[in-house]
UniProtKB/TrEMBL annotation:
Pathway: Nucleotide-sugar biosynthesis; UDP-alpha-D-glucuronate biosynthesis; UDP-alpha-D-glucuronate from UDP-alpha-D-glucose: step 1/1. Keywords: NAD, Oxidoreductase. It comes from Nocardioides panacisoli. The lineage of its organism: Bacteria, Bacillati, Actinomycetota, Actinomycetes, Propionibacteriales. This is UDP-glucose 6-dehydrogenase. Residues 295-382 form the UDP-glucose/GDP-mannose dehydrogenase C-terminal domain. The keyword Oxidoreductase applies. It catalyses: UDP-alpha-D-glucose + 2 NAD(+) + H2O = UDP-alpha-D-glucuronate + 2 NADH + 3 H(+). Pfam families: UDPG_MGDP_dh, UDPG_MGDP_dh_C, UDPG_MGDP_dh_N. Its EC number is 1.1.1.22.
Length: 383
């Protein structure tokens, strides 16, 4: 259930060797998958849907999808709700209830990210049902690649259904012997949140290093390279940006912080706060240039993605607009004339001409001819 990055990549992995029904509420997505077109930008997904044999049928019909299912994989959004200080897990609960009503024998596999301790509560709501949590570790734009070459497979259930589900994922992978870990469901939930929060920590660390260097006229590149030569630190995931963003890291860090409500901590809160501080610095640094018009080149968080959700540049954009500076946006994937009140320009040359300063979270050669206008913290030209 759910044909986003997680749902579609799992559907394709499993459909190589099993009969898979892919369920979504959006008829347009369903039609694209049945035409063997990917509704999201992902090179491997596009290839496998177009050219590989798959036993995959997409539908909006819940009864058809759930009937006789051995497994129901739940991959619906769980957005963070600041009012409740928790993920909104309503879609997971609805899907679980609907699936078990049609196929009570099915094992429910929750792939959506949930609070620590959530799966046990879901089991209490459905006594006797087989419900397991299996976290996902993928990147936007590389979702299928990361399932074909999994860093690890974690299943929060050391039971026969849990072990069989792990075998199905290994069967669909290209790597012959990926690490497989069976844990308790609560430990699996914690693995997901702690992993993403560590990634956010690493982004925040190198961003704050870059802020220090920028304010003291130092070479960020030289400092990062010297630091990264320590093998305990390494020269990876160290490229400065406008802040960590995308769909997962902002919400997962806040959820983990909420899970610490009765546990002493300083670091988790600092990671959350660091992202706000970084966006404040970026906006202030841009405004020092006294621009009349600021251009946002792409709203996406990273190269090769079409996902705008929680991208860091949007936070910077809102801060600049709040200071009364005009903002224009170049985003070819956006089907709208305006974005948060700012004009969307589809012609790249027109966009370049109108902007005094162009924000680019990641470098791109299409801006080389206006390099003097480009503001970026990107050093290495990668995510």
């Amino acid at each position: 259930m759910g044909l986003g990055y997680v749902g579609l990549s799992n559907a394709v992995i499993l459909a190589q060797h099993n009969d898979v029904w892919a369920l979504d509420v959006e008829p347009g997505r369903v039609a694209m998958v049945n035409r063997r077109e990917s509704p999201i930008i992902d090179a491997e997904l596009e290839d496998y849907l177009r050219d590989r044999p798959l036993e995959l049928t997409a539908t909006t019909d819940k009864c058809a999808a759930y009937a006789d299912a051995s497994y129901v994989v739940v991959a619906t959004p769980t957005n963070y709700d600041p009012e409740t200080n928790c993920f909104d897990t309503g879609s997971v609960e609805r899907v679980t209830a609907e699936a078990l009503a049609v196929s009570p024998q099915a094992t429910i596999v929750v792939k959506s990210t949930v609070p620590v301790g959530y799966t046990n509560k879901l089991r209490d709501q459905h006594p006797g049902a087989s419900i397991i949590f299996s976290p996902e570790f993928l990147r936007e734009g590389r979702a299928l690649h990361d399932n074909l070459h999994p860093s690890r497979i974690v299943v929060g259930s050391d039971t026969e259904p849990g072990r069989l589900f792990a075998k199905l994922l290994v069967q669909g992978a290209l790597d012959p012997d990926p690490p497989v870990l069976f844990t308790g469901s609560t430990e699996a939930e914690a693995i997901k949140l702690f992993a993403n929060t560590y990634l956010a920590l690493r982004v925040a660390y190198f961003n704050e290093l870059d802020t220090y260097a920028a304010m003291h006229g130092l070479s960020t590149r030289q400092i990062i390279e010297g630091v990264g030569l320590d093998p305990r630190i390494g020269a990876h995931y160290n490229n400065p940006s406008f802040g960590y963003g995308g769909y997962c890291l902002p919400k997962d860090t806040m959820q983990l912080q909420a899970n610490y409500c009765d546990v002493p901590q300083n670091l988790i809160s600092a990671i959350v706060e660091a992202n706000t501080t970084r966006k404040d610095f970026i906006a202030t640094d841009i405004l020092r240039r006294d621009p009349k018009v600021v251009g946002i080149h792409r709203l996406t968080m990273k190269a090769g993605s079409d996902n705008f959700r929680e991208s860091a540049v949007q936070g910077v954009m809102k801060r600049i607009k709040a200071r009364g500076v005009k903002v224009v946006v170049f985003e070819p994937e956006l089907d709208a004339k305006r974005f948060f009140g700012s004009k969307v320009i589809r012609d790249l040359d027109e966009f370049k001409a109108k902007a005094d300063v162009i924000l680019a979270n990641r470098r791109t050669d299409v801006l080389d001819d206006v390099a003097e206008k480009v503001y970026t913290r990107d050093i290495y030209g990668r995510d």
